[in-house]
Design brief:
The chain has helices at residues 10-18, 23-27, 73-94, 131-136, 145-155; strands spanning 36-39, 43-47, 57-61, 98-102, 119-124. With 156 residues, the chain is α+β, with helices and mostly antiparallel strands. The chain has a five-stranded antiparallel β-sheet with strand order 1-2-3-5-4. The radius of gyration is 16 Å and the shape is globular. It starts with 9 loop residues before the first helix and ends with a helix.
Length: 156
């Protein structure tokens, strides 16, 4: 098993073990605000605490619903605007070469959280897949979540 020293993550691991509630519903409360990048009338943008890449954000509706077809028109428009806003923030602060944007809807599609719809926004850089994931099954995240959150909030 590969190990990469990341002591700043222990706070999130402990929190994840304690919390059995929906992370997106939790983010709406005072207890979950520590990873909220921004909030709108119908959606919320949060840092992924287990990011695929540095800057991995997720946008979800405020209302607890698991599928796109359950969204109202206002929620759908708001979520799309939030995805665009999140992408602009990442572009401004991290200057990625591209993005992966998408949703895994349902367990069979790879959704880790099936009950609350969320869209992933993952910044990508040319060459961001190096030997570590290929040889060691280890992904290196080069920036702390706290530092990234401050940068994103100030860029907005």
């Amino acid at each position: 098993m590969s190990r990469l020293w990341a002591p700043w993550r222990i706070r999130y691991i402990r929190m994840a073990k304690k919390e059995k509630k929906c992370i997106f519903c939790l983010a709406k409360s005072a207890k979950g605000k520590e990873r909220v990048v921004f909030r709108t009338k119908h959606s919320i943008c949060v840092l992924n605490i287990f990011p695929y890449n540095n800057g991995h954000l997720m946008v979800s509706p405020l209302r607890h619903t698991g599928d796109l077809d359950a969204l109202t028109e206002k929620e759908g428009v708001d979520i799309l605007k939030s995805i665009i806003r999140a992408k602009k923030l990442l572009k401004k602060t991290l200057k990625p070469d591209g993005f992966n944007i998408g949703a895994n809807i349902g367990k069979a599609a790879g959704a880790g959280i099936t009950g609350h719809l969320h869209i992933h926004i993952v910044p990508r850089w040319i060459g961001d897949t190096n030997f570590m994931p290929v040889v060691n099954s280890t992904k290196i995240i080069s920036q702390s979540l706290d530092e990234l959150l401050i940068k994103l909030r100030h860029a907005d």
